[in-house]
UniProtKB/TrEMBL annotation:
Residues 11-181 form the Cytochrome b561 bacterial/Ni-hydrogenase domain. One of its GO terms (cellular component) is plasma membrane. It comes from Rubellimicrobium mesophilum DSM 19309. Belongs to the cytochrome b561 family. One of its GO terms (molecular function) is metal ion binding. This is Putative cytochrome b561.
């Protein structure tokens, strides 16, 4: 029942855990980041920047693991009975775009952070390399990019969630249940 690998019609434990862990993490990181950017940095809030960066890099690692896992254990085919072709195309395209943004958002945050000249230190322990030159222009543009990619991510997530809820309550198929592991 509780299989690790994906089946032809089911999501395994690994994919489900990655999906929900990342969903929770990303949904928390969006307001967290907005709050950080609107707060005057001070010694008292410095650790929160460190926490945001550390969690963000963890999410980057998780999405890489997720992409590797897709190769090792391909996802089940989308349920399509009675669903309009444009909706299936929208779902497939938005899944690809969500992946692109799950990669691009933390990479933009990391490169913008690199440009500030302040080290990115994971959980106060591991210093990551700089992936952009220290420069005020990179810093400014990098954080602007980090913001706008995050906005795009939030919009796509809203569409994605609307689609999932529609499948559940409107179309009444097993799409949401099988991602929850209830089908
Ligand atoms: C998927 C993960 C991430 C999400 C969803 C996320 C989201 C956000 C958002 C929405 C903002 C507000 C931007 C603004 O209003 O200007 C922000 C700010 C920030 N992010 Fe991220 N972020 C992520 C990962 C990262 C990573 C990996 C780093 C660095 C290594 C980082 C560093 C920062 C910093 C330093 C700020 C504050 C910018 C400022 O004070 O202007 N973020 N983040
Ligand atoms: C930040 C939040 C989220 C992101 C980035 C995200 C991303 C994704 C991606 C990329 C897929 C494609 C399959 C995969 O690679 O795992 C997927 C599948 C799915 N997501 Fe999300 N998701 C998020 C939140 C949610 C939420 C809150 C719900 C429920 C209301 C949900 C419901 C589903 C369902 C039901 C599937 C399975 C689709 C299928 O069986 O074909 N997701 N999600």
């Amino acid at each position: 029942m509780m299989r690790a690998r994906n089946g032809p019609e089911t999501w395994g434990l690994v994919s489900r855990a990655l999906h929900w862990l990342m969903a929770a993490g990303l949904l928390a990181m969006l307001p967290f980041g907005l709050w950080l950017a609107r707060t005057q940095p001070s010694l008292g809030t410095l650790w929160l920047y460190g926490l945001h960066k550390s969690l963000g890099v963890m999410l980057l690692v998780l999405v890489l693991l997720r992409l590797v896992w897709h190769r090792l254990s391909p996802p089940p085919v989308m349920l399509s009975e009675g669903v309009a072709p444009w909706q299936l195309r929208l779902a497939a395209t938005s899944h690809r775009a969500l992946y692109a943004l799950m990669l691009a958002v933390p990479l933009a945050g990391w490169s913008a952070s690199s440009a500030t000249g302040i080290d990115t230190v994971l959980f106060g322990r591991w210093t990551l390399p700089r992936i952009a030159p220290v420069s005020e222009a990179w810093d400014r543009r990098g954080f602007a990019l980090h913001l706008w990619l995050s906005v795009a991510l939030a919009v796509l997530v809203a569409i994605h969630v609307a689609g999932a809820l529609w499948r559940h309550w409107g179309h009444r198929d097993a799409t949401l249940r099988r991602m929850l592991g209830w089908a």
